[in-house]
Amino acid sequence: MKDLTNKLKTMKNKSLLQQNTSLKYLLFLSFAMLLFLSSCEMDYGKEQEQTKELKATASATKAVAGGDTLTFIDMSLGVAKRTWNFPGGVPATSEKAELGVVFKLEGNIAPSLVVEYFDGSKDSITFPIKIFPVLIADFTPSKTKIKVGETVTFTDASIGGATSWSWTFEGGTPATSTERNPTVKFNVNKAIGATLKITRAEDGSIATIAKNTLVQVGPPELMYNGSFEDGLITDYQTWNGAGFPLVIVNGGANGTKYAAAFDYSNWGGAELMSRDKPAERMIAIENGKSYTVSMWIKANNAGVLKIGWFQLGNLNNWTEGYKSSWGTNGQLLTTEWQKVEFVTTIPTDKGNWLNAYHSFWFTKVDGNATVNTRVYVDELSLKIVE
């Protein structure tokens, strides 16, 4: 029995010893691992401190002034401080590692990056970049009113250095063109438009402009001096029991330079293409024919405008009296330019409608009382309906 007890004690002591030995081994391994990791960190940090490298990029070497955003990225190693400089840029300077910049000044520029390393040394890099002007498409026609079958030359007025042109012409011959200043024939009887697309090859910029109803194509204009752009009143008068002035004023419709105006008071209106002018300047209107009448008109005070057309009978026989072919009896007149257009048909009764002129009769909206105001007219047009 005593021997058995001693054996058990011996086994217990060995187990405790083994456990102690295992614990000591684990502690040793943990300590060794900590030393190893610490050594690695020290070596890595030392390696980083000893590495210096300048490396930076720009997203492009060309841009459009005030438009494109270029991205600049600094990927240098060992940097303690960085300074970007962007001539004509927004922002002009920065210390960020990555940022976007918009340049407003045209020309060749050289943005730069200066880096200061951990040891106090410095290095720099520049980025040659070309900043192009904004590409803007524009053009002008040689004529804005032509007969059917006539030609118009379209002149490029674009800015920004376009290198190629692509035209499209509504109803034109040719219908498209790549010339810079093409000449086009129109065989349609309506207002036509044109579209210009320009390209700048060096940076690929594209700009487009469309101008609708740019050129009026159709029968000859019968109205004499309907645009007033020569700054003169020709074959016009006004009437209010006695003649009163129809005058030229600055600022016509659609950006034109001049318009005609009359000061309306009490009653009466402006008569255009008066009966009192020489026969060679009159318009011969045919009985039974239809005519398209158009004009731009406005007034200082809003109201309702009555527009009459072709009021005179036989020029050589005044006993036939006056006739009327009214275009509109209730055109709302506003303080802004608006286009008024209507078709009127000449009666086939007695008399020759040799002298075409129209009168503007202005009343208040309620139609019961007159109003004092100045009425403006511009871009008068008269065409036979074919």
Outline:
This protein is mainly beta.
Question: Which properties best describe this structure?
Answer:
mainly beta, five-stranded antiparallel β-sheet, Immunoglobulin-like, five-stranded mixed β-sheet, elongated, 386 residues, Jelly Rolls, 12% helix, 31 strands, 1 helix
Explain what you see.
The structure is a single chain. This protein is mainly beta. The chain has 3 domains: 56-132, Immunoglobulin-like (Sandwich); 139-218, Immunoglobulins (Immunoglobulin-like, Sandwich), CATH 2.60.40; 236-384, Jelly Rolls (Sandwich). Helix content is 12%, strand content 43%. It contains 1 helix and 31 strands. The strands form 8 sheets. It has a 5-stranded mixed beta sheet, with no helix packed on it. Strands 23-24-31-26-29 form a 5-stranded antiparallel beta sheet, with no helix packed on it. Mean pLDDT is 76; it is low at 40-48 and 318-322.
Assigned CATH class of the largest domain: Mainly Beta
Can you tell me the CATH topology of the largest domain? Jelly Rolls
How far apart, in Å, are the first and last alpha carbons?
141 Å
Strand order across the largest sheet: 13-20-19-15-17
What CATH architecture of the largest domain would you give? Sandwich
Low-pLDDT segments, ≥5 res: 40-48, 318-322
The count of β-strands is 31
- Report mean pLDDT, rounded to a whole number: 76
What secondary-structure arrangement, pairings included, does this model have?
Layout: H1 2-49, E1 56-58, E2 62-64, E3 69-74, E4 79-85, E5 89-90, E6 93-94, E7 98-103, E8 107-109, E9 112-117, E10 122-126, E11 129-132, E12 139-141, E13 145-147, E14 151-156, E15 164-169, E16 172-173, E17 176-177, E18 183-186, E19 191-200, E20 205-218, E21 236-239, E22 243-244, E23 247-250, E24 258-264, E25 269-272, E26 290-299, E27 303-309, E28 328-333, E29 338-345, E30 358-363, E31 373-384
Parallel strand pairs: 2-11, 13-20
Antiparallel strand pairs: 1-3, 3-7, 4-6, 4-9, 5-7, 8-11, 9-10, 12-14, 14-18, 15-17, 15-19, 16-18, 19-20, 21-22, 21-25, 23-24, 24-31, 26-29, 26-31, 27-28, 27-30
